[in-house]
Amino acid sequence: xxxxxxxxxxxxxxxxxxxxxxxxxxxxxxxxxxxxxxxxxxxxxxxxxxxxxxxxxxxxxxxxxxxxxxxxxxxxxxxxxxxxxxxxxxxxxxxxxxxxxxxxxxxxxxxxxxxxxxxxxxxxxxxxx
Length: 129
Hints:
By secondary structure, this protein is an alpha+beta fold. It folds into 2 domains: 1-80, no CATH class; 83-128. The chain has helices at 83-108, 116-128; strands spanning 31-33, 40-42, 56-58, 65-67. The chain has a two-stranded antiparallel ribbon with strand order 1-2. Strands 3-4 form a two-stranded antiparallel ribbon. The longest helix is centred in the C-terminal third of the chain and has 26 residues, at 83-108.
């Protein structure tokens, strides 16, 4: 690797631009910008070559790690933007579905005198474990 053509600083392995003046190396085009120090890293780096911050983020749906530059999870395909809202909505719909099932079960019981609120709370706590 050559020294920076702009400022003469030594090249840092794994970075696509000079760590000092930020001049991009001509022979390398695509990279991932570090969210902490903003240095441009080679696309396959898991951590920043300059500050060692992670260049991956976990998917809240499947747990797989994807590049911070990716718009969606490489494993399950879920988009990162709005993921927390979508997950919360899905969990709410799942809880509503369980409530409907419990109502059906209660209506089929002889007498149907169970406490629906207690049953929903118990189901909600089970799903969080």
